[in-house]
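Journal club prep, shared notes

We agreed each person brings one worked example of a sequence with its structure written out as tokens. Mine is DUF1190 family protein. I'm keeping it raw so we can talk through how to read the token line rather than staring at a rendered picture. Sequence first:
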Amino acid sequence: MDTASNSRKRTRFIDLSAMRKSFSLKPLTLGVAGVLLSACSSDRQEAVVYTDLEDCTRANPDAVSQCEVAYKSALEEAARTAPKYRSASDCEYEFGPNQCQQVSSSNGSFFMPFMAGYMVSSLLSPRPYYQPMFTSYSRNSSYRYRWIGADGFDYGGYNKKRFNVSKRAFEKKPAVTRTISRGGFGSTVRAKSSWGSKSSSKGWGG
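Then the structure, token by token:
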């Protein structure tokens, strides 16, 4: 099945200030039956990538509130940390047709890829760990159908959903405030040094 055809979305315009208001966090309920996820060691923990809110709630019907908080928070983090492009064509060259959105901010407008999924750990805790995930659907990209974290970490193929990650995977990443040109995504990812093998706590640039 062609993943790209099922995941494409129309380019659209969003307002970050309005999104921040609508995505304010709500208190979580506790005591949900065990679903996810126990830490494997003091520094490692299991995590799952969900493609959207429905994917999370379908897998965890007793943890709907936690799924919602993680999803909305990841969307905010995606807007803050995603690679930014000057034009739709540059963004779509990297991520594929109809995979980018125009965003308005105090610094002007730019184009960024849609969040392709979100990684969640400790879903049953009062505040789940989360981070946005991106992927490319472009034939021009060596990161086509691969999960890429908010800092550029390459987690591997898009079909893989469960990971054992460092707790640092969920540390807050620097905001991206500058735009990059066509080809910037791949070169930025390749330049990462690692937590384990391919990544750092740096962002896409800013």
